[in-house]
Amino acid sequence: MVGAVPARAEDFAPRLVALGTVTPLQSVAVHTRTDGQITAILFHEGDTVRAGQPLFRLDDRTARALLAQNRATLASAKATAAQTKGDFDRAEALVGKGFISKAVLDQRKALYDSAVAAISGAQANISAAETTLSYLTIRAPVSGRTGEIGFRLGATVRAADAVPLVTVNQLSPISVRFLVPAEQIQTVRSAMAHGGLTISARAQGDAGTTAPPLATGRLAFLDNNVDPGNGAVAAKGEFINAGDILWPGAILNVELPLQAAKPLIALPESAVQTGRDAPFVWMIGRDGKVAMRDVTVAGRADGKVYLASGVAAGEQIVTDALGKLKPGDKVRTKAGPGAPPQAALNQITPSAAGNRAAAPAAGG
Questions:
Q1: Which pTM was predicted?
Q2: What share of the chain is helix, strand, coil (3-state, %, to 5)?
Q3: Is the N end or the C end of the chain the one with fewer CB atoms within 10 Å?
């Protein structure tokens, strides 16, 4: 007695299923650009922050004093320039009347030019001081979620520190990195060339089930070289990540449909065996005898194997006790929910059994 099912056509869309790692589009380790003591921490660990939002303040008293000093120097330079400009204007009016020499006029002009240059120097010093002061307020470089704080209030930090003050990960949108196997690279490239590809992210336990995906996005990136180590190409899917469902570092399954659905013969996984030359199934003829039939596998999903060729709809295929069969054995099928009706069996057209280089061990 053997178990058997009639071959039936079902819609099947070839798809790529692979393990993926959730990766932020931007992940920035925040460091200070100048040495100083932390005087304020303006957020909490795990907060969502905006780009440009202040995160830390360092002691800025020295920087503010230097800025005030440079501003005073600028004011003095401007006053000197005003005085030397007046002296030069008066000398210019008197030189034509012969009251002063041309050498005196040149001297007044040099003093005025020097004062103008001093103004430019003071303005440059103010810009430098303002830049230094701005470094003492450390802002979020990107919008995202903050991680663990590396230094606490009162700690002295340095630009050379290896430990970041905090790391900010962008969570929306977010990407999932996975590998496209060598045999499917051209299929994915062809699908990308004909428009955007939708990609689904599922929890590892939900792979191949009808459960709704965690998130749906688009294939955003296919690398430009094949990894010589595994022959695969890196790819990334981009997701809006509403509600922060996808978390950086998580391992999950990605599903990428490669073609439109079309009807193919569907059989249980247990019915399709792997031979030396090609996959095969055991087909029961109208006379009740079994024969080996070569098949072409188009894909696998949800515990089923979808065949591109080798089996026609309605043919009866053995699903168990496969190791005991040899070509020409006469078998009886188990009665039960999985057994096909006798009317369907009578309609099966016998097919010639394919000769194989090797067959499973014979049995009763």
A1: 0.67
A2: 25, 35, 40
A3: C
Strands 137-139 and 36-41 come out as unpaired
Domains of the chain: 4-12+264-346 (2.40.420.20), 15-24+175-257 (2.40.30.170), 35-57+138-169 (2.40.50.100), 61-135 (1.10.287.470)
For 26-46, the DSSP string reads -EEEE--SS-EEEEEE-S-TT
- Report how far residue 166's alpha carbon sits from residue 130's, in angstroms, rounded to the nearest whole number: 24
- Residue 4 in contact with residue 316, Cβ under 8 Å? yes
Q: Quick check: 174 and 25 in contact, CB under 8 A?
A: yes
Q: Give the separation between CA 236 and CA 176, rounded to whole angstroms.
A: 5
What is the rounded CA–CA span in Å between residue 360 and residue 364? Answer: 12
Dihedral sign for Cα atoms in the order 335, 338, 342, 348: negative
